[in-house]
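Dissemination and training. As part of the outreach component of the grant, students in the summer workshop were shown how a complex can be specified as a set of sequence lines and then modelled as a single object. The example used during the hands-on session is reproduced here so that future cohorts can follow it. Participants entered these lines:
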Amino acid sequence: MQQKALIPQHRKVYEILRSHITDGVFHEGDLLPSENELCTVHKVTRPTIRKALDRLANEGYIVRHQGKGSIVKGIPKGVGILSLTGTTSAIGQDNLLTHIIVKPEIRNWTEAFTFPLSQLEIESGCIYLERLRLVNNKPVFFDITMIPNINLSRFTSRNFENKSLFDILRKNYQVEVKGGEQKILSIMADEKLKDYFQVGSGHPVLQLNRKIETNRPGFYIYSQVFCNTDEYALYGTF
Amino acid sequence: MQQKALIPQHRKVYEILRSHITDGVFHEGDLLPSENELCTVHKVTRPTIRKALDRLANEGYIVRHQGKGSIVKGIPKGVGILSLTGTTSAIGQDNLLTHIIVKPEIRNWTEAFTFPLSQLEIESGCIYLERLRLVNNKPVFFDITMIPNINLSRFTSRNFENKSLFDILRKNYQVEVKGGEQKILSIMADEKLKDYFQVGSGHPVLQLNRKIETNRPGFYIYSQVFCNTDEYALYGTF
DNA sequence: CCATTCAACTTGTATTTACAAGTATAATTT
DNA sequence: AAATTATACTTGTAAATACAAGTTGAATGG
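and obtained this result:
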């Protein structure tokens, strides 16, 4: 329990309120408890509560109105493509099913989807996993994720079914996505993708190679996403 | 001066520091004055300074390091794909050649690439143009642009060769791009695209449908971009 | 009955104070 | 000379307090 003491209060409150919104305890349009009420509930002072609410408002979970209160907005739409926090929040968890094709395992690597690696990254090895995402029971996403094996104890033994990878990294390892870069191209499905997406030969598929920045300096997450855009186009704002 | 009193202090400090970064008073890598120094300079207390710095850090202008200070990062990169200002700035104008396939002309429209239109937009008609973009003399982009014909006098008679459409809108009509939304998918080249891109049948092509917001309320620009990603992948940050 | 006023909320801004924790440099010790 | 320690910075967290400003609804006046 000594690690928990290191997590600041405003962050704890943020996590609690955020999960209450994403898990449906609060619904869109609901009025959040007032700041003073939240103070007594969480046993902290108003500046601490406000810092948590600041972040929630900044990320679009709530909208604040002076004299009125904070109104729940729901899960925000992503910025960029597939949103910052991964595919899960872009579509909403309701209709998204995740199959783990390759369970998280330690691998050696020398490069990540055309992105060069630092010496430390190469020496540390990576946690490798493959997932297939089904939207309304149709396979739409297939993604390969590579995470440098730096300070992520017991990561490979965690359960990823129906959970966002980024949620786990944020809650358990305090790793937060800050931004990133991506290359996008259109390719023909190879045998593997034809099998996963259950499509014929010559089928066009979207490919994204992403290098994702985090709040840990020098710690990047690499992912390669393939997407069958027949029925679901990727949507993003900018 | 009575309105100025309504602007909170933390916002004033934010605006000052922000302009100092964008105007080059502070350069990338510079160490910002410490919070206490900023306090004495701007005659406010630390929480106020910190609120300004919070926002600057959140928007990417600075990065903060505990025990060290706040380091200037510069003007944050654009979000989205191809950057805010269109394909030209994404690649650099050097190797980009533009062929006008359909010169700007007034057309009727009822929808724009699956984006619904307002009554005013439909009644006004649109300025329609098609362009083929060559990178290093190879055709890479083919795009269709639709602009509502509202307050754009003499627009169709302008010359677009080698000029960015958005530059013309900004300089001559004070229309600035503020953001937008886009749908991205992977398709097979049809006869027209096969001809333009000089590729065989069944060739995968990237398609973007974009609705672009401007500083004019209710004034949107619609564009459909096809991209041959064989040699050049789309690149973007988020 | 209607309009106004007032009181009791809400969030927004700002100060003051205190200590924790990370960083860098100078001084000290080995 | 090199390693260690002390110290003087830096930012991070948190509380207690005060008042401003917007919203709402009940009480009061006409």
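The longest helix of chain A spans residues 9-22. Students were then asked to discuss how this feature might be tested experimentally.
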